[in-house]
Amino acid sequence: MRIDGSRGDWDEIEELWLAGELTDDEFEDDFVDDIIVAGIGAGTNGWGVPGASYSAELR
User: Fold this and answer.
1) What span, in angstroms and rounded, lies between the C-alpha atoms of 30 and 35?
2) Each residue of 19-40: pLDDT tens digit?
3) CA torsion 14→39→34→56, rounded to 10°?
């Protein structure tokens, strides 16, 4: 799976990073909402990856 992060809105993540307030949970929430959904569309909750291993690439 490849996610092209160039379509997303990184502003909120960047603001939290620069303020020293970016937590793992905050990053995950914002990344899903602002980057992944922006790149592949809504309705992506609940995806699963079967098998013992997989790889993901973020560009």
Assistant:
1) 7
2) 999 999 999 989 888 888 776 7
3) -70
Between CA 39 and CA 59 the distance in angstroms is 11
* 56, amino acid identity: A
- Residue closest to 30 by CA, chosen among 8, 51, 50, 45: 8
Name the residue with tokens 């996610």. 3
Between the CA of residue 33 and those of 36, 50, 51, what are the distances in Å? 6, 23, 26
User: Whole-prediction pTM value?
Assistant: 0.62
Question: Does residue 44 register a pLDDT over 60?
Answer: no
